[in-house]
Amino acid sequence: MSFLSIDYSSISEVAKIYPKIEPVLNSANLILDVGCGKNKVCPKAIGIDIIEKEEENYYICDLNDIPVRPEFPTNVDIIVCSFCLCELESPIDSLSGLLRILKIGGLMIVFEPHPCYVPRYGLYKEISSKFKHFFTPADLIDMFTLLSGVDILDIDIARVDKGEDLYNLKEDPYGSFLVVRRAT
């Protein structure tokens, strides 16, 4: 396991990891950004979130209903889930649904809050009250191990090392980062 350096000054959570995932995003044809909020990972991505907004390539959806939404595209090259699984009632059910629409060989990139981050610092009180789960890298590995047909390619702990560190986070884990490939 390695440490992923992130820029805390980035506005959205997915922007914090963008430099690490940019090369694979550029090579993908169909990208699904699950839980994208107001900012998709890149303009060509299809966004999915509960937030209502008028935008091309965007689905309004309760993310807990992912497994039962037939209108989503299939054969997706890359699925990005950033600070999304932490808000779901049953992340494992949602991941199962997402893996069904990910093409064989496709990548799922997951970036979730580490247990040390939000509870310890009480950041984003209006947001953190929605969090139902926090994930260490081992938690993510355990969750994906329950799903058949995936290979874990990369696992990191994200730490703040750039940008204004208002909460003295440089020594503590910020998030857990995982990349898996659909094998079958």
Question: Can you characterise this structure?
Answer:
The chain is an alpha/beta fold and about 180 residues long. It has a single domain (about 1-180), classed as Vaccinia Virus protein VP39 (Rossmann fold, 3-Layer(aba) Sandwich). The protein is about 25% helix and about 30% strand. It has helices spanning about 15-25, 90-100, 120, 125-130, 135-145; strands at about 1-5, 30-35, 45-50, 60, 75-80, 100-115, 150-160, 175-180.
CATH architecture: 3-Layer(aba) Sandwich
Task: Note the main sheet.
Answer: 8 strands, mixed
The termini sit apart by 25 Å
Write the H/E string, N to C.
Answer: EHEEEEHEHHHEE
Give the CATH superfamily: Vaccinia Virus protein VP39
CATH topology: Rossmann fold
Count the strands? 8
Question: Top keywords for this entry?
Answer:
alpha/beta, single chain, Rossmann fold, 5 helices, 184 residues, eight-stranded mixed beta sheet
List the topology elements.
Layout: E1 2-7, H1 13-27, E2 31-34, E3 46-49, E4 58-60, E5 76-82, H2 91-101, E6 102-113, H3 118-121, H4 125-128, H5 137-145, E7 150-162, E8 175-182
Parallel strand pairs: 1-7, 2-3, 2-5, 3-4, 5-6
Antiparallel strand pairs: 6-8, 7-8
